[in-house]
Request: fold
Amino acid sequence: MAVVTMKSLLESGVHFGHQVKRWDPRMKKYIFAERNGIHIIDLQKTIQSIKDAYDAVRKTVTAGKSVLFVGTKKQAQQAIQKEAERCGMFYVNNRWLGGMLTNFVTIKKSLLRLKKLEKMEVDGSFENLTKKEIAALGKERSKLQKNLGGIKEMKDPPGILFIIDTRMESIAVAEAQRLNIPIVAVVDTNCNPEGIDYPIPGNDDAIRAITLFTQIIANAVVEADNEAGLKIIETLGEEDEDMEEMMNDISLKEEDREIDIDAYASGEEEEAKTESTEKDNLGTEEDDIHVDIDKVYEEE
Reply:
């Protein structure tokens, strides 16, 4: 099954770049032509780039690492959150806080604070506070939820980043490069593809194009999770087969066990003697019983 088709790319407007005057010369190899002062992206190269990125994400998830979806521009916020939640991964769709990766220890403290405020709201701790204190804590919680809600359960830095618009998310790109975290990014004709591990040339402004790219990466995560589930099932099947083989080996060993003929014969003789002795005892007991026939008739 194809990861993406040329038809879906054309329908989503992935091939439309920026105006010619706003281009980055380093994107020249991904540009197909120019139409009415707008660059047209080569979709053949886009498809190949999508396949490479798809495989990279799938391998990362299969290895047990997480994916962080990043897209804070208005066109990307909804798609990033929806697809990240669908595949069970983390996301940042409001604002990239400086040091979110390079200073993750401090970010962890903020995450613990967010969880604490949520717990206080549920367990009734707010009942002992004034309205002013409750309002202040609620404001703090909503601010933390807005910026860190998508990574609330993230315990370690992600294994790979998926970014929409590298120009806008330049801080996220710089932090990932510093920590040697692979980057999958949608790069438009005004972006710099250098330093991006898996650049995907395409339109990063159209909502339909952003949604399509995000769905593809989310599908890679889902497929990797399904593969892990199949591997577990196959492993369980192999364990059952091993158990069956082991039981067969045990039964064969029982059948193949050597028998001492002399001991077996002597055992049969002893059993025969025992049976004859029991029969003799029964016979003597029956002989010792005396029945008075006249007495029986009289009683009847």
Summary: Residues 6-101+157-231 form a domain with the Rossmann fold fold (CATH 3.40.50.10490). The longest strand covers residues 31-35. The chain has nine helices and eight strands.
